[in-house]
Automatic annotation (TrEMBL):
Biological source species: Nocardia terpenica
UniProt keyword annotations, A-Z: Signal
Signal sequence segment: 1-28
Source taxon at top rank: Bacteria
Pfam family, one: SBP_bac_1
Protein's name in the database: Sugar ABC transporter substrate-binding protein
Length: 414
């Protein structure tokens, strides 16, 4: 995590089947009270069925310490929040003071946001992971606050590995393909590697392969889809699909149902998000699995990093003092780490990582943070490019030429 992002994070929210729209107001007031500098409207997505209660608890604790500030909470499903945001931003009275969503670049480019250094203390900014700060910045100015992180890592079924005689997880594409062939050869409806290239999140799986070839979707100044490195990654992706070791029709298979197949023990390897750990525990605690770095062309570690963000909107009434108090409170190590742990993601603060050192998600994913590469979500053209990826990249597993597809996706940047 729209998406793209809504990214990886919002994909998980969809995975949990959340389709409800939930609203609540905290401690009186309402979100139309835009003239009161001490009344804040706060719009957030629902990551899980506990999201609303977690924010309610944080807001209640904050209000006890700051009884003169009211925070009115509105919670929307990931399927609804893009439309809600578009509607709310049509007038200042309905625009939220603080918004939690994935993309921020359009709002920043339109001059609607406060810079991050005006809405949190410098101690909060210095506690954030540098790579995520960069991803929340445009031309050197940070406009948003990363909320928490999601990266990808390889999940593999250790029982299937043992049956196939595989003693260690793959580090390179060649090893990945070889291991997938051995697992697929076991039969019984088992697939070697899960390759979700359906429209749900095509760009995420593809990025793991293009990044693994040294590619990128941006050179820092413009979108770069049609490059030799990206082509090599997509060709490798096509090759493993052509090898017959994935699920049938990977070009039309979405990640959500495929993850469930892995949880049931029918896939040898798949790239997974942090919440997958909790999903396995809830749905099939007997599954024997382990995690390993994402395989790449030459074994050099790299992964996809995504983060949803908190941002604050400028209004005629200056609410920065109240906004800063609330966000500084939230990013305190104890408050922040409790929230992140409840949602089963990765903290993006140094203090949060330390506080959650024993958390299963942090143990499995913290090492991926320094090697994470990101979507160019700070480029307003990225949304159109991502949409083209979802429409077209899956066709390479159905006979389309990778070079032709990349050229077509590049056109979306125009």
């Amino acid at each position: 995590m729209k998406r793209p992002l809504r990214g990886a994070l919002s994909a998980f929210a969809l995975l949990t089947g959340l389709a409800l729209t939930i609203s609540s107001c905290g401690f009186g007031g309402n979100k139309s009270d835009s003239s009161d500098p001490k009344t804040l409207s706060f719009l957030v997505p629902s990551y899980s069925d506990g999201t609303k209660s977690e924010w309610d608890s944080i807001i209640a604790d904050f209000h006890r310490q700051n009884p003169d500030i009211t925070v009115n909470l509105q919670v929307e499903s990931w399927t609804q929040i893009p439309d809600v945001v578009r509607t709310d931003l049509q007038s200042e009275s309905s625009t939220p003071d603080i918004l939690n969503i994935d993309a921020y670049s359009t709002y920043a480019s339109d001059g609607k946001l406060y810079p991050a250094n005006q809405i949190v203390d410098n101690s909060v900014l210095s506690d954030l992971q540098p790579s995520f700060v960069k991803n929340a910045s445009i031309n050197g100015t940070q406009w948003a606050l990363p909320l928490f992180a999601s990266t990808r890592t390889l999940f593999y079924n250790t029982d299937l590995f043992a049956k196939a005689g595989i003693t260690a997880p793959p580090k390179t594409w060649a090893e990945l393909t070889d291991d997938a062939k051995k697992i697929a050869a076991l039969g019984g409806g088992v697939y070697g590697y899960g390759l979700p290239l359906g429209k749900e999140e095509t760009q995420a799986e593809t990025s793991l392969w293009t990044f693994g070839a040294g590619g990128s979707w941006s050179d820092g100044n413009k979108i770069t889809v049609d490059t030799p490195q990206n082509l090599e990654g997509v060709q490798a992706l096509k090759a493993i699909a052509d090898a017959g070791v994935t699920e049938p029709n990977p070009g039309s298979t979405n990640r959500t149902p495929l993850i469930n197949v892995f949880i049931q023990g029918k896939i040898g390897m798949i790239e997974g998000l942090p919440p997958l750990i909790n999903m396995i525990q809830q749905q099939n605690p007997g599954l024997k699995y382990a995690t390993a770095p994402t395989p790449t062309k030459d074994g050099a570690p790299v992964t996809l990093g995504v983060a949803d963000h908190l941002m604050a909107f400028k209004k005629k009434t200056d609410k920065t003092a109240a906004i800063k108090k609330f966000l500084d409170f939230f990013y305190q190590s104890k408050v922040y780490s409790t929230f992140v742990k409840a949602e089963h993601f990765i903290p993006v603060t140094t203090s949060g990582v330390q506080a959650m050192a024993d958390d299963p998600v942090v143990k499995a994913f913290a090492a991926t943070m320094p090697v994470a590469k990101f979507y160019p979500s700070n480029d307003p053209k990225w949304a159109a490019v991502e949409g083209a990826m979802k429409q077209q990249l899956g066709t390479v597993t159905q006979g389309a030429d990778p070079a032709t597809v990349l050229k077509a996706v590049q056109q979306a940047a125009s």
